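NAD-dependent protein deacetylase
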Amino acid sequence: MSEQLETLRTWINESDNIVFFGGAGVSTESGIPDFRSVDGLYHQQYDYPPETILSHTFFRRNTEEFYRFYRAKMLVLDAKPNAAHKKLAEWEQQGKLKAVVTQNIDGLHQAAGSKVVYELHGSVHRNYCQKCGAFYDARYMLESTGIPRCEKCGGLIKPDVVLYEEGLDQATINGAVHAISQADVLIIGGTSLTVYPAAGLIDYYNGNKLVLINKSVTPMDSRADLLVQGPIGEIFSQL
């Protein structure tokens, strides 16, 4: 491990064009459950599996049940950025890191101070009335009851989160693709690399310093130039 960390340190020190691409594993050390780990959301007891509840169809047909699950499981508003979030923000301030691409919807990268963040799956911190477009924050959603309605027009409020069956925002994808394609060092961490189209973004990397940091194996391990196994916050705090 020390040899890999030394290589990673060298690459980071020598680069001023790093891009980080991360998933749920980046936030588990902040207390936010990982969708697919043993104690994650997918193992909770609900009448429907989370993939069903977090789908566009379910949101439309069972809106109240969607919000019951959403408030209980998705709005972890007391979570704080961990060592990984903080280190990435620090690298950006130093001019080393150019962008963070994340599958997470928790806003912890911004809370740590990161400015250039491409949120592939949206954010719980942005919620809009579907009728008039009025904005509501995550705290409002958490404290609402039943089906949240707009105070201005009575329209249904929907989180700016990409549900199953919904497409990703094209401008966000374009920004992420551009950043990854220009990167000197691409660090991928805390993601199983099984969720598409997000996992496909790795194909746009043209460099020869692809770093994979994960607690478990991924389908992309053989493509990595450097493989580091372990919790990402723990590893980043050693850099």
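thats it. The two ends are 12 Å apart (CA to CA). Strands lie at 18-22, 97-102, 117-119, 122-129, 135-136, 157-161, 185-189, 210-214, 226-229. bye
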